[in-house]
Amino acid sequence: MTVYDQLMAHERQTQLLASVAERLGWDQETMMPPGAADQRGDEMAALELVLHARRTDPQIGEWLAAVKPEGAEQAAQLGHVRHSYERAVKVPARLAEELARICSTAQGVWAKARAEQDVAAFLPVLKQVLALKREEAACYADSGHDLYDGLLDGFEPGETGAGLAAMFDRMRPRLVALRGAILDKPAPKGLTGHFPKDKQLALSRELAQAFGYDFNFGRLDLAVHPFMSGQGADVRITTRVDESDPFNCIYSTIHEVGHAMYEGSVSPALRMTPAGRGVSMGVHESQSRIFENQLGRSPAFADWLFGRMRDTFGEAGAAEATAFARAVNRVRTGYIRTEADEIHYNLHVMLRFDLERALIKGDLEVADLEAAWNDRYQADFGQAVDKPSNGMLQDVHWSAGLFGYFPTYTLGNVYAGCLHKALRAELPDLDAQMAAGDMKAATGWLRDKVQVHGGLFTPRGVIEQAAGHAPDEGPLLDYLEAKFGALYGL
């Protein structure tokens, strides 16, 4: 075996073990009995200790020093190995193990606290998670990153907190102005009635398949906070059900299908290699967000969905397709990020981004987080938080230790805006296809332009080669103004 082959064989085993750990996480959120939480934390910690040892094996450094890449694919693979190795060796095994244990436990504590509206019950374990994440962030600081940038680099290599903050500052004025113009117009009606759980799930399965999801290699389950798990030939999605609001289930499903299609569509030749997964969370979110919004909430697709909704649930408060499309795209101030319309969504992300940067920097302590959240929400959205599950307890991310993840949602929206503009240019009859419920051309374009490449390009590089230009926020904002301008008669 060549040096490169030896390194890739080592990486393949590491990827397979990481996949087992991910499956344990999926089980914890969907199937695990609640009494098993402490044991699962120990299991996750034990497996993380094995993974950390493999990721920091000195032999990797020797292989990297000796190997010379042959071609672009090998260069990309080695780039991922080097990035992972250089990050991993900075984190002590003790810290990696303890993070896995505490974050596994914290997710169960968070879910219970959220259900019981009990912030005080969650704060002690969140304080532990934050202390460990600050310690982890400090491990990366000697590379030139500030504390938050070191964590962000694990989700979106090449981005910085300052750079994202500048982009968000450019976006905010146009988003706020558009929101104001829309809220001055009469609000469209939402759906009314009872939407049984079994019918919602049956329709969600149908929609998942319409967007290309193959249940031979996946499954749909319920979770408190919807997510996707897996890669390659085993990619699982989750959703949630509110029997008074079917859009929650429908669009959570479509969103997670976007993630799943990315992981499942990576070239089989790349599977279980360092470049065999989505290249970053920003690019991942570009796929889930374009599935959910530019495609799934388009007036054309809403026209087809309207018929399926009537077949499944009856009239449900929308007597004709135009009213249904307006209900799908209804803009209103709300508490929940995952249920937010396309205008408010990014404002939710910006709130979380600023708060978690302050937490990591030490400018905000856990004891003051709820008040800071509520004050910021009041300032940005003009209403008071009514209960913790609509405030700081709504998202799973901080309990899971995912500091640095939140800004990738808006970055994904920006990337999706660029991809959608290019997609429209290349598929001029897209609306006619979507109005017939035919998503194959759109999802096929995304597969060929983005998903099949896995991690062979940089995050911004894969968007640039697909869209034909360097990514920026302009196409997203133009799309939002055009779409909602037409829907609301602005």
TrEMBL record:
Record-linked CDD domains: M32_Taq
Swiss-Prot/TrEMBL keywords: Carboxypeptidase, Hydrolase, Metal-binding, Metalloprotease, Protease, Zinc
Keyword DNA damage set for record: no
Protein name: Metal-dependent carboxypeptidase
PANTHER family: CARBOXYPEPTIDASE 1 (PTHR34217:SF1), METAL-DEPENDENT CARBOXYPEPTIDASE (PTHR34217)
Cofactor remark: Binds 1 zinc ion per subunit.
Reaction equation(s) it catalyzes: Release of a C-terminal amino acid with broad specificity, except for -Pro
Record: active site: E256
Residues binding Zn(2+), per UniProt: H255, H259, E285
Biological process (GO), any one: proteolysis
One Pfam family of this chain: Peptidase_M32
Role description: Broad specificity carboxypetidase that releases amino acids sequentially from the C-terminus, including neutral, aromatic, polar and basic residues.
